[in-house]
Every structure is written in C-alpha cells, then in structure tokens.
Amino acid sequence: MAIHAHKKGNESNDGLQQRFKRQVQKTGLMKLLRSRKTLKKKPNTRLVRNSALKREEYRAINRKKQFYSNM
Predict the structure, then answer these.
(1) Whether 3 contacts 26, CB under 8 Å
(2) Considering 8, 16, 30, 61, which has the largest number of Cβ atoms within 10 A of its Cβ?
C-alpha cells in the first residue's frame, strides 16, 4: 500500500506534508500498525461467558429502571 504525494505547482512544503498526512489518515494505516504493535490474547470461553452474563444482568436492571423510575 504505497502512498504518494507530489508537489502541485507552487505548493509549499508544509502544504505537501499536510496533504500526505491526510492521505495516510484516510487509509487507516497508522491505526492498523498501532494495533498490531502489541500481541493481544483472545479471551477464553469462561471469560466470554462471564462477561455475557454480566451484560445481561445490566440490561435487565436498565429495563426495570426504564419502566419503574423509583428504583
């Protein structure tokens, strides 16, 4: 994935640099490289299951709060 920025007419070096920076940001290349910088372990099944149960509990509480405002 090569990104090129050539000077247009009498464009200043700062303008060229800013245009190149915008092109890099639009591709999302830096975001991808930063995420790859560190190794992230996949969560094990027990952790996934526990987080899903907690999420369901929070949703149930919020549903009750929605209908009963004095809780």
Answers:
(1) no
(2) 16
